[in-house]
Each structure stands twice: as structure tokens, then as C-alpha cells.
Amino acid sequence: MASERPGRSGGKPSAPRKTPTTAASGPERIQKLLSRAGVGSRREVEGWVEAGRLTVNGQLPEPGQKVTISDRIELDGKRLDLASGSEVVRRVLIYNKPEGEVTTRRDPEGRPTVFDSLPRLKDHRWISIGRLDINTTGLVLFTTDGELANRLMHPSSEIDREYAVRVFGEVDDAMLQRLMDGVLLEDGMAKFTDITPAGGSGINRWFHVTLLEGRNREVRRLWESQGVRVSRLKRVRYGPVFLPSRLTVGKWEELDQKAVDMLSKTVGLESVAIPAKTPNEQAALDRKRNKQPGRPGRKSAGRKWDVSSTKPASQARKPARKPAKSIKKS
């Protein structure tokens, strides 16, 4: 992978990269410290606090309580190792999720999860950046940096997500305009910032749609509010990161330094050097990657479906905002 090869410049040594920044020595909110340490996302940590599963020095913490890595923090009675929270380690994976997998670390129903296919880490763990429901395929981002994950998911960052969607039902210009203007759903107003026809005819048509939020089943619910049904849904972009056509269903890739830096810059974070891998770690990663099964999504009874991972060339309407540039691996 590009992120694992040293840079070259005409035989001359490459410029030194920035080293990981040391975390502030003072107290931090518990969800921020634990997410940076790779224990879980901020949302997960907040849920543990609310459920009374976390203790700090033997006491139940208040929401947003400030802690340090020297505090004794336990989850379900087991002390957490916070040593990795003393510095930022920022690695990013892209994963092409198949149908049938859930975006959760453990599923009480025993269904396969997106984490089952990822490479294992020794001192950190992968945090998913947003979720896809069990029937949605396509791009999922993972990182070891809780701050990066939080900023990419937070509504204030306005990171756009693009989906290829096939809808079943009659669609006209008035409907598309309503979806662009805004629709009142049970959890508030929602809308697409861009809708582009992408093929099909009659009552089975493809569109590329873009929105700035990641609410539960938002794409499906928006279309269903207009009396049509989503029959296929695939995320093809998250912010500046596109799902590359070379990445088959069920496989992952690690972003290189240039790509991670661009993603970080999108949410106002400084560059952090990707840690070098030992030969044993590199060999283990290569074995894991080569063993990836490349599982296809569940096939429907009809003909095989496919859709481009990039926006179609012809556009019926102009996007509401300038499309983000694709991140290319060096």
C-alpha cells in the first residue's frame, strides 16, 4: 500500500515528516481522552457514562468530566490501558462494505460486523466514521484517531456524503425539487444538497444524491417520504474520499500519508505522521489483506446490478456546493 512505502525524490532523502503530537498534559473530557486512546468513539464513551459502566478512581463520572491518563478508569470493572492516549496515532482505512454486515463492534444477534474483516491492532483499535445499515453497501472509513472521527461525523463540519441509489417508483422534477428544498421527517427537516440522474428508465432509476448529515436511514427515509422505495443503496464518497473502483466488495485499504493529511486538513487538523511498521507487522498486514475474501453482496433474483463509484458525467442540475476533490493514492 502506498502508505507503507517510503517517499522518494530523485534519489535524495525525503523531507522529514511531522511526528505525532503529544496530548495536552492537563485534564481532558473523558470521551475525548478515551477516544484518542482507541477505547471507543466519543458517542460510545458517552453511552457508557450514561449507563454507569465507567468509573473514575472508583466513582461514577459526570457527563463530560475531565480526566487524565494517570486516573484509574474502569469499564465494567476492568481497568483501561490509557498509555496510547498520550499521543495521537492517526491511521485511516477505507472499506467496501457488503450487504449483511452491521456497523457495530459486537452484534447481540451474532451477525457479521464490519470489524471482523479489519486488520488487528496491538495498542489501538479502529473507530468507524459513521455507519451504514445492514442493507447498504459501499464506503466506510475507519481511523485510530478519535478526534479525527469526531470531527468528520459532527454536523458542524458539514462533511458531505454521496450515495448511488436506485429507486422503484415514479419520479418527477417536482419530487426532486421537494427533496432538495427539504422534507419534514420524524426527527426534523432533511434534504439532499445535490441530486443527479445516473441511468435507468421507467420506474427503476438510478440517482447520485448528496447530503450533509448521517442520520439513521436518512437517504431511504427521504425517498420513502415521496412514496417511492429504495431498492439499492451504495455510499461512494465521504468528504474528499471516494470509493476506488479497484476495491472490491468486502476488502479494505489503508490510506497513505498524503491522503490522510488531506482528510485531516478537511476538518482543520494538523498533519500527524503515520507510524512506521515493523517487518513483522507489515508481513501480518500483507497476509491479512491477501486473505480478504472479496465477498459479493447478496444477489437479488433479478439481473446483476452495478454502478460507477464516481459522479456521472452528465448532470441534470448543478450541485448546491462545489464537489470535493477525490483523494488519490500516491
What does this 3D model show about the protein?
The chain has helices spanning 30-36, 42-50, 146-153, 173-181, 218-224, 257-266, 279-290, and strands spanning 28-29, 54-56, 66-67, 73-75, 78-79, 92-97, 127-129, 137-143, 161-168, 183-185, 188-190, 194-201, 204-211, 229-238, 241-242, 252-254. With 330 residues, it is of the alpha+beta class. It contains 7 helices and 16 strands. 32% of the residues are buried. The longest helix has 12 residues, at 279-290. The strands form 4 sheets. Strands 6, 7, 8, 9, 12, 13, 14, 15 and 16 form a 9-stranded mixed sheet that branches. The protein has a 3-stranded antiparallel sheet with strand order 2-4-5. The chain is globular, with a radius of gyration of 21 Å. Strand 14 (229-238) and strand 15 (241-242) form a beta hairpin.
Rg, rounded, reads 21 Å
Number of discrete helical segments:
7
End-to-end separation in angstroms reads 9 Å
Shape: globular
Poorly predicted tracts of residues: 1-24, 296-330
Strand coverage percent: 15-25%
Helix content: 10-25%
Question: Residue-averaged pLDDT, rounded?
Answer: 81
Sheet having the most strands: 9 strands, mixed
Structural class: alpha+beta
DSSP, total strands: 16
In short:
The chain is of the alpha+beta class and 330 residues long.
